[in-house]
Structure prediction request, 172 residues.
Amino acid sequence: MTALLVLIATIAPLSLVTQGTPAMIPELTRVAGANGWLTPRQFAELYAIVQASPGPNATFLTAYGWRAAGLPGALVAQASMIVPTSILVYGVARSWDRFRERRITIALIRGLSPLAVGFVMASGVTIASAVDRTTLALAVTAGALLVAYFTRVHLLAIVAAAALLGLLGIFG
Prediction:
């Protein structure tokens, strides 16, 4: 299968069940590795670079598609994210008032929420496993997660602290 078809077959269905690009990370990492586009470490580095730049999370798909197939890949990756979800949202918006009280609609909403949380958690594990090569790096990742979850420390302060540790050469 050509890279463009792989991008469509991977991203389009994921766009319908995930709540954004971060939730796609485990599958995108697997596909990139299987097709020789990026190693897990290169994937994590590309994701970090794109996240550090201004713009929406979906900007990552442009860089991902570029690595897979150049400019056509970048365009196809973005279209594969935008077109299916736009069609779905349009259809749901047009029929929401008619179906919102039905049991199947309520069940779908209740079922998709934990699925989205699971996708995001899997994404975190995928990125961490690609870059945490030492026990200390894994401990910093776990510590950052705990601080973010249990305190009101701003996320940028946590990122800055981890960046400082990296600049000091703590991770080797």
